Amino acid sequence: MLNLKNLENVKALKQNMHATFDSAAGQEVMAYLEQICRWYPNIADSNDTNDIIARDAYRHVLGTIKTFLNLSPQQIHELATTGTMDAM
User: Fold this and answer.
1) Exposure of 41 by Cβ count < 10 A (0-12 exposed, 13-18 middle, 19+ buried)?
2) Given CB 3.0 to 4.6 Å as the disulfide criterion, which of 3, 45, 73, 80 pairs with 85?
């Protein structure tokens, strides 16, 4: 597992994520991930507890990717070193 408490690792990961998701193909992949991870709530979404838990798990993964893309390496490193990253 990548150690996000190492700033150089964070910088490399962030660079790789931008190389992936900033391209036209990456934007298409992001749109697909938003769709399959049910990023946008739908009025037809089930209120069953298991469905809610599953949706939250999907959104958590995609939300982490989107957060990484928007934060600076220093901010990500700070979250990782303070333990706040676990809440993301």
Assistant:
1) exposed
2) 80
